[in-house]
Amino acid sequence: MTDKTHSPAPGAVAAADRVLIFDTTLRDGEQSPGATMTHAEKLEIAALLDEMGVDIIEAGFPIASEGDFAAVSAIAKAAKNAVICGLARANDKDIDRCWEAIRHARQPRIHTFIGTSPSHREITKLNQDDMVTRIHDTVTRARNLCDNVQWSPMDATRTEHDYLCRVVETAIKAGASTINIPDTVGYTAPRESAALIRMLLERVPGADNVIFATHCHNDLGMATANSLAAVEAGARQIECTINGLGERAGNTALEEVVMALKVRHDIMPYRTGIDTTKIMNLSRRVSQVSGFAVQFNKAVVGKNAFLHESGIHQDGVLKNVETFEIMRPADIGITETNIAMGKHSGRAALRSKLADLGHELADNQLNDVFVRFKALADRKKEIYDEDLIALMADSAANT
Ligand code: KIV
Ligand code: ZN
């Protein structure tokens, strides 16, 4: 172990209300079984993320394969604005390979990690002191290569607090400017997630000079809530993926945390740099290239997230869209209609839909089409514009 103590990288401390968005779709997301993407697809997704305003793109795990190395290198060379980050375990070979892959980026970052909880220490056969030495040495090595180093104690939420403080302090002293606190197995809950960040900020010397990040998995469906709770406690970087893609139940969904911060700015006064109008396009592209369909009722980007079928809801949104919508579809880049015609739809929605299709109906004609529409909707799950045009023709021929 050397005695060298690094000062934090320049620019480590962000504005108090600015939350950095760290996207790991191409690393943690791609670790979903079956989500492998091609080189060209990774480059395309990275370019879209960069354009959308993601602050840091975790482009891959360079030591994992030749393909990963090539993809991370190509993304590093192509990125225009985002910091490009590669992942490395806590050993010299991983760190050197990671640096090789990202070194041509305008803003490179090495992200190195080690499991610190009791079960991880058992697997790595390192006692507490030996692990501290390893952390010091590997973070120092990374920092000697790159000004921007992120360090993660994997399984932080199941690591003893005293030990967690000790390892975090070690990483900061060795030169890490971002400390990521992963909830690797999606075990924590919002109050605990906040308390953990608060505890680290209070107890660890030097904590004020680094950015704390939150990295949540969704095993209990709490990743978004846990990430936001961590931000309220002082974390200023959220690690997330498009559509919540990721191992097992996935990671925090980028679209959820970004839109939650936008829509509820009144109670969570933090900013991101994301152009939210690009969210839907990215969601669709990631779904296509990963082969992972987005569930219909997925928050923000699900097919049904902005669709209204019941008569009461349709009538409400036709009169005042805020009755049943807390965000505008256009805010995430949706241009399609928000009215789904089905058996729960009412007269007002049918009249409005037919008007959109160029048919202004008198009341008696509307009554006739409405009866035909209800009969069809009882038999058919989704009613398309073509169905309505056919109904209009039937009505005209038979009345
Ligand atoms: O979930 C996790 O702990 C990780 C680390 C590599 C940061 O993905
Ligand atoms: Zn993870």
From TrEMBL:
Principal EC category: transferase
EC number: 2.3.3.13
Necessary cofactors: Mn(2+)
Reaction(s) this enzyme catalyzes, per UniProt: 3-methyl-2-oxobutanoate + acetyl-CoA + H2O = (2S)-2-isopropylmalate + CoA + H(+)
Gene Ontology biological process terms from the UniProt entry: L-leucine biosynthetic process
Pathway(s) of this molecule: Amino-acid biosynthesis; L-leucine biosynthesis; L-leucine from 3-methyl-2-oxobutanoate: step 1/4
GO MF annotation terms: 2-isopropylmalate synthase activity; acetyl-CoA C-acetyltransferase activity; manganese ion binding
Occurrences of domain Pyruvate carboxyltransferase (ranges): 19-280
Keywords, comma-separated and alphabetical: Amino-acid biosynthesis, Branched-chain amino acid biosynthesis, Cytoplasm, Leucine biosynthesis, Manganese, Metal-binding, Transferase
Binding site for Mn(2+): D28, H215, H217, N251
A cellular component term, taken from the record's GO annotations: cytosol
Record text on subunit structure and interactions: Homodimer.
Job of this protein: Catalyzes the condensation of the acetyl group of acetyl-CoA with 3-methyl-2-oxobutanoate (2-ketoisovalerate) to form 3-carboxy-3-hydroxy-4-methylpentanoate (2-isopropylmalate).
Family membership noted in the UniProt record: Belongs to the alpha-IPM synthase/homocitrate synthase family. LeuA type 1 subfamily.
Identification of the protein by name: 2-isopropylmalate synthase
Range of the intact protein held here: 1 to 399 of 534
